[in-house]
């Protein structure tokens, strides 16, 4: 029955070991302890998607996981994915279509959009809207975000066909 | 907001989890996916002295065939259910319903055990367990117990679980043959929301309905069977006629005790239930349709 625990996790390819309060959630750990503030804290109850992170290759809500639960896990954030070039197409499309205004939703939105495009299920605008409906944007009205994702999904589908 | 203070133990075995849960000197709660519990702790509408983390317990994981049954471990993630070819083939109602549970990020962590233990009246999986007449296997200090899903959900966030019991696995009959049909329908204001009204139907019989389970969820304090509607459906040839569908829908509308909530009044939920029963019966189909 611990109040503090040592966690070891890999964050953007870097192994990090730290003592943390057990009630510290993962996104707060990433932001405060690791200093990666690209992941954002919005609702803190799992609905807004601003805290979306990759844990062991899957998108999760960083506000609904405890840092201690990520022990021995591989975590990727917007910073790591962006630096590794894994979001290039989506980021270019977001810029082209003006899909970011304040940018608060954008990291979570990009991570979710990447999952969507990878899944191959971005077959129409309705499907896109439904998939990203767990990421709230207060600025853009979503139209430009859907435009950007649609463009990337269509060009990746074309590449698939061409192979 | 941030969660209130608690201590934490990562259980290394199911026995350890049960021992900790039953300790009288400290109030403990189980955490699995945490997709509801962490939200409630963060909003400070729940609190606990001690979290017992089940995520390391491999004996609670796994989707497997056991003869004529399918076994789903309590710690199985919604996303694992969604991606399971076995469940798509043998439990088509569950395969369809799971796509309506929240969003991808939630489904990557949330578990079936957690969903059933929480017993949100508007949740999809409890209704499916009832429609499929699943057995929920629970472990406590006295050993294993089996609860039929039909007796498990007692009220808002209230189940037959006794203090100190842990859901271990769920056992369901295979429903993949051509003699089984199912239908699922849910109305929510936005994709991923809890249901404003929902229907889960499971039937047996290939040319005509031999038996039926109709479950309405999101419209009362727990998922509800509609036994008179089920009776009205038995004997009907397949596909279900519009007239029969309306008759069955009307029976469900009259017998269920509807309760309103912040999303809709009881009358609205009653109307939506009738509509969803009618629509569901129109698409009552086997896995090949």
What does this structure look like?
- The complex is a heterodimer of chains A (163) and B (289).
- Chain A is an alpha+beta fold and 163 residues long.
- In chain A, β1 and β2 form a beta hairpin.
- In chain A, α3 (88-97) packs across α6 (143-162).
- Chain A has helices at residues 26-33, 78-83, 88-97, 106-119, 125-131, 143-162; strands at residues 4-11, 14-21, 52-55, 58-61, 74-76.
- In chain B, the strands form 4 sheets. Chain B has a 5-stranded antiparallel sheet with strand order 4-5-10-6-7. A 4-stranded antiparallel sheet of chain B has the order 11-12-13-14, with helices on both faces.
- In chain B, α9 runs antiparallel to α10 and α10 packs antiparallel against α11 (266-282).
- Chain A binds chain B through residues 1-3, 5, 22-23, 25, 28, 44-46, 49, 52, 58-61, 63-66, 68-69, 71, 112, 115, 129-131, 133-134, and chain B through 1-10, 26, 34-35, 38-39, 42-43, 50-51, 53, 55, 79, 102-106, 108-109, 190-192.
What's the layout of helices and strands?
The complex is a heterodimer of chains A (163) and B (289).
Chain A: E1 4-11, E2 14-21, H1 26-33, E3 52-55, E4 58-61, E5 74-76, H2 78-83, H3 88-97, H4 106-119, H5 125-131, H6 143-162
Parallel strand pairs in A: 1-5
Antiparallel strand pairs in A: 1-2, 3-4, 3-5
Chain B: E1 7-10, H1 14-22, E2 28-31, H2 37-42, E3 50-53, E4 63-66, E5 69-73, H3 78-82, H4 85-90, H5 92-97, H6 104-107, H7 112-118, H8 124-131, E6 135-140, E7 143-148, E8 153-155, E9 158-159, E10 166-173, E11 180-187, E12 197-204, E13 211-217, E14 224-225, H9 227-233, H10 242-255, H11 266-282
Parallel strand pairs in B: 1-3, 2-3
Antiparallel strand pairs in B: 4-5, 5-10, 6-7, 6-10, 8-9, 11-12, 12-13, 13-14
Helix pairs in contact in B: 9-10, 10-11
């Amino acid at each position: 029955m611990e109040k503090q625990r040592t966690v070891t996790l890999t964050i953007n390819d870097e192994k990090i070991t730290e003592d943390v309060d057990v009630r510290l959630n993962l996104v707060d750990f990433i932001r405060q302890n690791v200093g990666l503030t690209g992941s954002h804290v919005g609702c803190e109850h799992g609905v807004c998607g601003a805290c979306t992170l990759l844990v062991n290759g899957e998108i999760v809500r960083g506000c609904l996981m405890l840092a201690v639960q990520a022990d021995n896990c591989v975590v990727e954030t917007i910073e790591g994915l962006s630096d590794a070039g894994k979001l290039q197409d989506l980021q270019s499309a977001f810029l082209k279509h003006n899909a970011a205004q304040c940018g608060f939703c954008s990291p979570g939105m990009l991570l979710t959009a990447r999952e969507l495009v990878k899944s191959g299920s971005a077959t129409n605008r309705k499907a896109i809207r439904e998939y990203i409906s767990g990421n709230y944007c207060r600025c853009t009205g979503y139209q430009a975000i859907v435009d950007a994702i649609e463009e990337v999904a269509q060009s990746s589908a074309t590449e698939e066909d061409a192979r | 907001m941030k969660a209130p203070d608690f201590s934490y133990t990562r259980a290394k075995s199911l026995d350890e989890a049960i021992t900790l849960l039953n300790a009288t000197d400290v109030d403990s709660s189980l955490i699995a996916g945490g997709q509801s519990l962490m939200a409630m702790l963060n909003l400070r509408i729940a609190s606990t002295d001690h979290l017992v983390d089940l995520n390391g317990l491999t004996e609670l994981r796994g989707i497997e065939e056991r003869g004529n049954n399918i076994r789903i471990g309590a710690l199985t993630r919604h996303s694992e259910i969604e991606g399971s070819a076995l469940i798509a083939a043998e439990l088509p109602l569950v395969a369809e319903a799971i796509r309506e549970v929240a969003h991808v990020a939630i489904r990557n962590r949330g578990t079936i055990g957690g969903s059933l233990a929480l017993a949100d009246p508007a949740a999809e999986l409890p209704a499916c367990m009832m429609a499929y007449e699943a057995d929920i296997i629970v472990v406590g200090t006295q050993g294993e117990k089996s609860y039929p899903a039909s007796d498990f959900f007692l009220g808002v966030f209230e189940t037959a679980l006794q203090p100190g019991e842990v859901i271990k696995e769920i056992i369901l009959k295979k429903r993949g043959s051509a003699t089984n049909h199912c239908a699922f329908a849910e109305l929510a204001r936005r994709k991923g929301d809890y249901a404003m009204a929902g229907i889960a139907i499971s039937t047996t019989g290939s040319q005509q309905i031999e038996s039926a389970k109709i479950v309405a969820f999101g419209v009362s304090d727990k998922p509800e069977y509609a036994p008179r509607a089920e009776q009205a459906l038995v004997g009907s040839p397949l596909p279900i006629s519009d007239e029969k569908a309306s008759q069955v829908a009307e029976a469900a509308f009259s017998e269920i005790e509807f309760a309103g909530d912040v999303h809709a009044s009881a009358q609205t939920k009653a109307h939506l239930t009738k509509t969803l029963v009618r629509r569901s019966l129109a698409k009552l189909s086997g896995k090949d349709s």
